[in-house]
Specification:
The structure is a single chain. The protein is mostly helical and 421 residues long. It has a single domain (10-409), classed as MFS general substrate transporter like domains (Growth Hormone, Chain: A, Up-down Bundle), CATH 1.20.1250.20. Helices cover 85% and strands 0% of the residues. The protein is built from 18 helices and no strands. The protein has helices at 2-35, 41-48, 52-63, 65-80, 82-100, 106-136, 141-148, 150-154, 156-169, 171-206, 210-221, 228-232, 235-264, 269-294, 299-319, 323-352, 357-386, 390-409. Helix 1 runs antiparallel to helix 6 (106-136), helix 6 (106-136) packs antiparallel against helix 7 (141-148) and helix 14 (269-294) crosses helix 16. The N and C termini lie far apart (44 Å).
Length: 421
């Protein structure tokens, strides 16, 4: 027994290397496919003369991909396994960027972003990597997700690289370069993650001593295991999904319009892209710190506090254009955004278990992506109407407080045992 006890920590160490590799892969994907895509906004407006509402619609419909295909993505990930989905998604995302370089019309922009960049990003990174992390951890799940979600925070420098490539070579060449970066970095990392994950799963199932399997069984038994139908019949599922939908309405609206807002205020596209990257980088310590705190404190209360901070910071960012005032509010926003990103998956896994995590996550995305769809369009519409971002950012602050209320109502669900008769 003493020998087994000494070997146990060693056998678990590969899990953390999987999380670190997943974080790096997530960083590259987010820097290019999420934050970096906003750097193309000014180029589309200058070259094609499209309104900001029309351009925002492309980003919004791309985010709606999760609403339509999220349940299918979750089902396929549970059915085929994360490894297969990763390779399919990475290749599809790269093809999306190649196609982006050929865009000459608004409908084509919509199609490329939705069916290429965003769908590939979700299939290759968001869904399968979340499932991997959720399945590998229970006791320290929030910390693991905090490390994993540091990836988007560490993607900050890549956003500046995207802005630099656009300024130096033009947006079409920058899109092709992004595709090559995704393939060159994403495929090797995916191979490492898949091999390590499969070895870890085999080690759990074939361990010579009973300790690992017993620990695994106890871990599964210590948390509720909801089916998709059971989860959707709880108020907690809908309140949690609504809270996340409203939160994403705020953050999506801000992130898509962040670069063009700063360009309006006198910055160059390159400088605004760098500042967006700095915002992402600032969120990194919050992702790790809130992930660590999530294992020690009440996740729901932590999320409520972060939502209140997010609301105040967005309100103040909308009302001030002076850089010395805008910057500290941006820092608060970035820290709150990072903490929220780290906690949303752990609380869902804690509430509903990991056995059907991908499917439940996919169904939840059908709700949350309504917020991601509306955010950029609302910001673009109110800007075209008022030529200012003050009104949309004020509206986003109000939405953030509504999200806090939904989170207050999203109490842990109680699993009802099936009646015997």
């Amino acid at each position: 027994m003493p020998v087994a006890s000494r070997l146990m920590p060693f056998s678990m160490k590969p899990r953390w290397w999987i999380v670190i590799a997943a974080s790096v892969a997530h960083a590259v994907n987010t820097g290019l496919s999420y934050f970096g895509i906003g750097a193309y906004f000014p180029s589309f407006e200058r070259e094609f003369g499209w309104s900001r509402t029309a351009i925002s619609g492309a980003f919004s419909l791309a985010r709606m991909e999760g609403s339509v295909l999220g349940p299918l993505e979750g089902y396929l990930t549970d059915r085929l396994g994360p490894p297969r989905m990763m390779f399919i998604g990475i290749i599809l995302c790269a093809l999306g960027f190649f196609s982006l370089s050929l865009v000459h019309s608004l409908p084509m922009l919509y199609a490329v972003l939705i069916l290429g960049v965003v769908l590939g990003s979700s299939l290759g990174y968001n869904m399968p990597l979340s499932v991997v992390v959720a399945n590998l951890f229970r006791a320290r799940r929030s910390l693991a997700f905090g490390i994993f979600r540091m990836g988007p925070g560490l993607s900050g420098p890549l956003v500046g690289v995207v802005g630099w490539m656009i300024g130096l070579w033009g947006w079409r060449t920058a899109a092709v370069a992004s595709a090559f970066i995704l393939l060159a970095v994403g495929l090797p990392l995916a191979s490492l993650i898949v091999r390590a994950y499969e070895r870890h799963q085999i080690a759990l199932s074939e361990a010579p001593g009973p300790e690992v399997n017993v620990a695994s069984e106890r871990r599964m038994a210590s948390e509720p295991q909801f089916t998709v139908g059971e989860a959707m019949r709880t108020a907690s599922f809908w309140m949690l999904s609504m809270a996340m939908a409203l939160r994403q309405m705020v953050t999506e609206g801000v992130s898509v319009h962040f670069v063009i807002l700063l360009v309006d205020r006198g910055l160059s596209t390159e400088a605004a892209s760098v500042l967006l990257g700095v915002s992402a980088l600032i969120s990194a310590p919050a992702r790790l710190g809130m992930g660590w705190l999530g294992d020690l404190l009440n996740k729901r209360r932590l999320i409520m506090g972060l939502l209140i901070s997010l609301s105040f910071s967005v309100f103040l960012m909308g009302w001030t254009a002076h850089p010395y005032l805008f910057t500290p509010f941006m820092v608060i926003y970035s820290l709150a955004y990072g903490g929220l990103a780290a906690l949303q998956e752990p609380i869902r896994a804690d509430y509903f278990g990991t056995r059907y995590f991908a499917s439940i996550h996919g169904m939840s995305r059908s709700v949350t992506t309504v917020g991601t769809f509306m955010g950029p369009i609302i910001a673009g519409f109110f800007y075209d109407l008022t030529k200012s971002y003050t009104i949309p950012f004020t509206f986003f602050a109000f939405v953030g407080f509504l999200s806090t209320l939904c989170m207050f109502l999203a109490k842990p669900p109680v699993k009802r045992e099936a009646k015997r008769g």
